[in-house]
Amino acid sequence: MSDNIFYELLNQDSVFTDKSKISPHYAPEKLPFRDQQIKDLSLWLAPALKKAKPHNIFIYGKVGTGKTTVVKHVIDQLENFSKDQNLPLKTIYINCRNYQTKYAILFYCVQLFYPDLNFIGYSRSFIYDKFLTYVKENKLNFIVILDEIDKVKEIDDLTYTLIRSNDEIDIGSVSMIGISNNIFFKNNLDSRTKSTLCEQEAVYPPYNAEELKSILGQRVDLAFKKDAITDSAINAAAAIAAKESGDARRAVMLLLRAGELADLNRSTQVTDKEVYQAKEKVELEVMKSMVLTLPLQLQLVLFAIAQSSLKPKGILNLTGQAIDSNIIYSGEIFDKYSEICENYCEKAVSIRWFREYITELETYGFISTTISGKGVKGNTTLIKLGIDAQSIVDLLEEDFKK
Ligand SMILES: Nc1ncnc2c1ncn2[C@@H]1O[C@H](COP(=O)(O)OP(=O)(O)OP(=O)(O)O)[C@@H](O)[C@H]1O
Ligand SMILES: [Mg+2]
């Protein structure tokens, strides 16, 4: 019995008491530094409790600023309250990474309304009719939460359809909460969509080191054994995450991975040494999750850059000398991008939009760009990938298969 590897594994000493509490998936009961955001959101949704249409809401903030956690927290409370009071309210949380079209989103809603029926194969108009009929018949106040809304391919059409349905409803309503960490998302909406979706708006600021320390402190007590983690380890995780991005997910993951490293080394305490050791691994995980949450077109451009970086032709000056083999002409990337779009049956955007996307990718820190100066043919943008090209190619190839 004692020879069994699992026996040994389970009995191995660990710095954790409950590892799940330091996982990024754990939703704490208390959300420090988000009181105002919670209050605002409750106020904007409160009309639903008086059988009126709540505001449409748009929430923007950088990664790990608590958007998803806050919205789920408030929606849970709203649902519980309305159940207690027997109010006709329903909400649906949709991560648009998994549901990217208007049809997929409406289909998901209808499936929620009629869990025992199967709507596969029905036409779009039938699905929309079912959607509307259910809301009408139940005099429902229905709130659709669209997380990672920048992933939706037909956002103007979806917003129009959902909100227009209110014209056909006498009692009840349909409203939306959109969530995004993409600064450029709003710029790309048509003005009617923008004014509809952003009836109320909130911007969640990044956390500073002190705030992250306190957020971590709350979770450390639940996740680690007493004295199994030093104060300086917590400070180090908070400082690293604050410096990089003010991202609570990164801070939480640093402590999780540092704890795992301590366990692996059979150490009884997590110190700043493990936190610094965990940094690189966490950075890679954060980068991967950022790439996966990018809108499709940005992913395609990044994929083209990564692919071109694997076989760089290099930039030559007028005398034919290589200046830097990791730098690529933007024109070369545009050609690669067009080819990739064709392979994946996606419509390629114009060169103007392509340039926008290059700027976006630079803002997120994936690439750096310079304008070619003297000595290089023409006057063109030169692009350099700041992360490992092969990791990006592997990650996106896998994601595109889904
Ligand atoms: N105020 C807070 N108190 C405690 N934990 C928090 C707080 N804000 C965020 N977190 C934690 O940080 C992690 C990331 O939060 P969340 O997923 O809500 O971020 P997000 O803003 O939705 O990020 P993204 O843009 O990447 O989706 C989660 O584990 C969450 O529990
Ligand atoms: Mg989120």
Folded structure, characterized:
- The chain is 50% helix and 12% strand.
- With 402 residues, the chain is an alpha/beta fold.
- It has 3 domains: 5-17 and 214-292, Helicase, Ruva Protein, domain 3 (Orthogonal Bundle), CATH 1.10.8.60; 35-204, P-loop containing nucleotide triphosphate hydrolases (Rossmann fold, 3-Layer(aba) Sandwich), CATH 3.40.50; 296-401, Arc Repressor Mutant, subunit A (Orthogonal Bundle), CATH 1.10.10.
- The strands form 3 sheets. The protein has a 5-stranded parallel sheet, with helices on both faces. A 3-stranded antiparallel sheet has the order 8-10-9.
- Helix 10 packs across helix 11, helix 12 crosses helix 14 (351-363) and helix 12 crosses helix 15.
- The protein is globular.
- The structure holds adenosine-5'-triphosphate and magnesium ion.
